User: Which sequence fits this backbone?
């Protein structure tokens, strides 16, 4: 077991124990105001891009299939969901992912499986380490950053990572979470999709070539 894995395991178990009252309260509140399911489970790319099941508290209301195909899903985020996201309480179940070994406390955030075909070889290096609950990009602007800025910060972390840097990022994450800054990009629930951005840019380039 590496020092980082031991560090992650001990802090995650301690975090679950200390935060268990909040964990239970959030479960009860979601059940009362949004019903089931309590958790949001989604396949995300982990180490080397291998899929794992990410666990979060649900922040969106359920809708019928016709509406769920809409690109704009802001109508699905109610005040409770916005509060959970702004305070990052929706991320608490990811401590279970860390204990299981799917994630680390600190590392590049796990994005969507859909994005994998669109990464450059350099950007794909963000999967050279376990994804994290928080990361260097999260303390430098979160979703207010562009995709390129996020990836640059992720790659910088991978090249310079050590336990002291992880401790620094975890401490600064507390300040970022309390401030509520950078939760959403302008005019978006969280961030515009990376694959849509690439497709749009490719279409623009193709239109110039014709």
Assistant:
């Amino acid at each position: 077991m590496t020092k980082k894995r031991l560090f992650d395991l001990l802090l995650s178990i301690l975090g679950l124990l200390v935060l268990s009252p909040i964990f239970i309260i959030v479960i009860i509140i979601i059940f009362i105001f949004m019903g089931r399911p309590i958790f949001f489970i989604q396949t995300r790319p982990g180490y080397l891009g291998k899929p794992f099941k990410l666990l979060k508290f649900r922040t969106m209301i359920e809708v019928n299939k016709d509406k769920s195909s809409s690109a704009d899903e802001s109508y699905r985020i109610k005040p409770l969901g916005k509060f959970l996201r702004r305070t990052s309480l929706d991320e608490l179940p990811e401590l279970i992912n860390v204990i299981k070994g799917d994630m680390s406390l600190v590392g590049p955030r796990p994005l969507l499986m859909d994005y994998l075909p669109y990464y450059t070889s350099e950007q794909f290096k963000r999967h050279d380490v376990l994804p994290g609950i928080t990361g260097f990009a999260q303390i430098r602007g979160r979703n207010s950053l562009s995709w390129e800025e996020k990836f640059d910060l992720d790659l910088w972390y991978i090249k310079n990572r050590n336990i002291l840097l992880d401790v620094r990022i975890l401490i600064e994450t507390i300040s970022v979470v309390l401030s509520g800054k950078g939760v959403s990009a302008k005019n978006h629930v969280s961030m515009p999709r990376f694959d849509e951005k690439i497709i749009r840019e490719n279409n623009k380039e193709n239109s110039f070539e014709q």
Observations:
- The helical segments are 3-33, 65-68, 79-86, 94-100, 147-160, 163-179, 194-209.
